[in-house]
Each structure stands twice: as structure tokens, then as C-alpha cells.
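subagent[fold] <- orchestrator: predict structure for attached chain, return C-alpha cells only, no commentary.
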Amino acid sequence: MRFLLSMILGAALLSGCDINETMRAKAKDGKTADARALAAKGGCMGCHAVFNTVYGPAWQLVSERYQGMPQARDMLMERINKGSYGRWDQITEGKRMPPQKGALNDEELGKVVDYILSLAGDERS
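subagent[fold] -> orchestrator:
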């Protein structure tokens, strides 16, 4: 009985995860899984999620805002490292994102930012 209850609870928890078919397809090459693991390591997931606004904006919203901007990758890396405020006030109520310099090295942060920028246009299943 405990096993069955554990399975039901586990399935219920997993069904609420912020994952969709597009993310599963991208995960086949390992890039999505790597980026999400790095984001967790860097503490990003405490304030952000892929499709849901938590404390900071959903990453899909970030991707859509900066879609097509050639300098978006460098700009986002700088804003993450140095901190940011005023760009998402409607979501953060004016609170700033503190500097994250050192949470991830530049290569790791680049993988996370590349993943974030790849999310524009993804639809949740």
C-alpha cells in the first residue's frame, strides 16, 4: 500500500513539473538537461522557471523579449553577472536581481543563456 501511495504521489508531483514536449525533444542531445542542471547549480531555479513566473520572469518570456537581438546573449550574461533591475518591474514589483557573478563560470553561464534564448515560441503541452 505504501508503494502504491508513493507511486501516486510521485506521479502527481511530476505531472506539475515545468516540462513540455519541446523540452523533451531538445533534451535528447543533452543540452537542455545540461543547461537545467547548471541553472540549478547556480541557484537560478530559486527565482526562475521555464514557463512559469516564480519570483523573476519565466525564461520563455525573457527569450521572447530578446528574440532577434544580436547582442542578447552578451547582454543577458552581463545582467546576470552584475545584477539587474527595472526591466521586469511588472513581475518583480521593482525588486532587483542581485549579482550572480561567480555562481557559474562563463562557459556554464553561456550554456544556460543559450538555452533560455532558445525558448521563444515554445508551447506548453
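orchestrator: received. Logging for downstream: The mean pLDDT is 81. The longest helix spans residues 2-15.
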